[in-house]
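Exam prep: given the inputs below (a chain plus 3AM), describe the expected output before reading on.
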Amino acid sequence: MIRLFAALSLPDEVCARLQSLQMGLDGWRLSPPQNFHITLAFFGEVSEAQATDLDAALSAVEGPGFDIWLDGVDVFGGGKPRLAYAAVRSDPALSHLRDKVRQAGRTAGLEIAAERYVPHVTLGRGGARADTRLTRWLEGNAAFLAGPVRAETFQLYRSDLGRAAPTYTEVARYALTP
Ligand code: 3AM
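Solution:
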């Protein structure tokens, strides 16, 4: 079985800026910069046969390229923050692509849980309290802005969970229309 998800990648210069944002997230498990991505869909553990079907379905996904803007920072979990992220500005082309990628998962016979889409780049996880340091981090980085980043492709990644950060490996790449 392999653990798969589809995501958009980010150029090195944007990853470097995101890495600077991680300063101030003391006590968090920080994502290494090579792991920065915008998840489109999480497929979970799939068999080799399902992975082949998924690859075929994803190859059939069509959609226009679009500009990504990272805009501000936030946390999931509110009073018990569990994930700190850079927010991705909502965009109809991004939502549309996300829907098509999830549909491709269903075409491949995978169960895709219904959930609200809050596009984001994970910077760190867990282990922190909603304290003044976090408030300072949120306020200090509210004006963070990076873009435009042209999305010309999306990727299928394999995730291998380790004791530290997971390792993500690109296994396929799909083109959007220019
Ligand atoms: O870093 P983000 O949040 O974009 O949270 C996991 C990560 O996304 C998400 O898939 C991406 C690669 O692991 N993920 C992991 N397990 C998940 C699950 N059971 C999940 N998303 C939904 N359900």
